[in-house]
């Protein structure tokens, strides 16, 4: 496996400057280039490149937020407030909430949906809710030293005009309850949680087997994987499903977490993005790994 991963990294490293970094969050625009991949299967963890380099969770945190929302509220409550459908819009789109007939966000993996699932995490205080995010992440990653990137957190919070608009629209539609600024702050904290490719591979492996673990029900993992397949790669999700055919979730930090059901978890990273907000080299590495190991669930 390590030879396969090394080959994939070497095949792509010459294109490490292809694409643009996420400039709408100023702190992400200045991160150094890099490329990494990790795989976890029943035999162990395999890595290549910058697999241990830390970057921020960003939209991949929406998986953990949805796990907690489902754990605290159950399927019916969550999906009475958030849809199960692909949007076809960009991840931070505001139009379907404001102008169309939709009365709730299309799915939990666009920003409006994730802000709403964040509001569903139960706790008496902000710190109690944040501890739930930390504890679940720690259990899934298999490490206790969960950290946050304060520079990215502050940068995201101070440049979050669109997310703030989405949250107040949700409040106006009486979908979101609670203190809007506190909910947004919790969401930004989750996005700024620091991970590496190994953490993502552990998350993918956790998802791969539908087992009750870390307080999360296996049935909820099945639901989350289905949404990852249909909605996890922003408005590139359909093409990604055709080309690669694995439940996956990307983030604008350049990470992609993926799972091959009942086989393995995968984490890839490279910070330069395509026009959809997905890591260019991350997608290419996933394509190559899929071909090498025949992972596509539709094959």
Description:
There is one protein chain. The longest helix has 16 residues, at 126-141. The protein has helices at 2-12, 61-73, 75-81, 95-98, 111-119, 126-141, 150-158, 161-172, 180-191, 197-208, 218-231, 237-243, 280-293; strands spanning 36-41, 44-49, 55-56, 194-195, 248-250, 255-260, 264-269. The protein has a five-stranded antiparallel β-sheet with strand order 2-1-7-6-5. Strand 5 and strand 6 form a beta hairpin. With 299 residues, it is α+β, with helices and mostly antiparallel strands. Helix 11 (218-231) packs across helix 12 (237-243). It is built from 13 helices and seven strands. The chain starts with a helix and ends in a 6-residue tail after the last helix. It has two domains: 2-58 and 194-292, Beta-lactamase (3-Layer(aba) Sandwich), CATH 3.40.710; 61-191, Probable Glutaminase Ybgj, Chain: A, domain 2 (Orthogonal Bundle).
Q: What would the keywords be for this entry?
A:
47% helix, Beta-lactamase, two-stranded antiparallel ribbon, 2 domains, 299 residues, 10% strand, alpha+beta
Would you kindly provide a brief summary of this structure?
Helices cover 47% and strands 10% of the residues. The chain is α+β, with helices and mostly antiparallel strands and 299 residues long.
Number of helices: 13
Helix content: 40-55%
Count of domains: 2
Approximately how much beta-strand content do the residues carry?
A: 5-15%
Q: Biggest β-sheet: count, sense, barrel?
A: 5 strands, antiparallel
Please write the CATH class name of the largest domain.
Alpha Beta
Q: Write down the secondary-structure element order.
A: HEEEHHHHHHHHEHHHEEEH
Unreliable segments of 5+ consecutive residues = none
Given helix and strand content, the structural type is alpha+beta
């Amino acid at each position: 496996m390590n030879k396969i991963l090394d080959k994939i990294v070497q095949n792509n490293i010459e294109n490490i400057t292809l694409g643009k970094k996420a400039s709408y969050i100023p702190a992400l625009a200045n991160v150094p280039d890099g490329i990494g991949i990790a795989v976890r299967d029943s035999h162990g963890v395999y890595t290549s490149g910058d697999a241990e380099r830390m970057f921020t969770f960003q939209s991949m945190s929406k998986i953990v937020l949805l796990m907690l929302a489902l754990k605290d509220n159950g399927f019916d409550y969550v999906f009475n407030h958030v849809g199960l459908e692909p949007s076809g819009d960009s991840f931070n789109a505001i139009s379907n909430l404001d102008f169309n007939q939709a009365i709730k966000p299309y799915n939990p993996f666009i920003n409006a949906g994730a802000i709403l699932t964040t509001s569903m995490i139960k706790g008496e205080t902000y710190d109690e809710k944040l501890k739930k995010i930390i504890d679940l992440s720690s259990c899934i990653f298999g490490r206790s030293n969960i950290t946050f990137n304060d520079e990215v957190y502050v940068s995201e919070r101070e440049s979050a005009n669109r997310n703030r608009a989405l949250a107040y629209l949700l409040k106006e539609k009486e979908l979101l309850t609670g203190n809007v600024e506190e909910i947004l702050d919790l969401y930004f904290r989750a996005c700024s949680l620091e991970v590496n490719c190994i953490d993502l591979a552990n998350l993918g492996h956790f998802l791969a087997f539908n087992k009750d673990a870390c307080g999360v029900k296996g049935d909820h993992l099945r639901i989350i994987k289905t949404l990852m397949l249909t909605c996890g790669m922003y408005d590139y999700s359909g093409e990604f499903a055709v080309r690669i055919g694995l439940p996956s979730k990307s983030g604008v930090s350049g990470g992609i977490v993926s799972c091959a059901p009942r086989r393995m978890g995968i984490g890839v990273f490279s910070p330069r993005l395509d026009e959809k907000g997905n890591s260019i080299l991350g997608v290419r590495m996933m394509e190559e790994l899929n071909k090498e190991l025949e992972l596509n669930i539709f094959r």
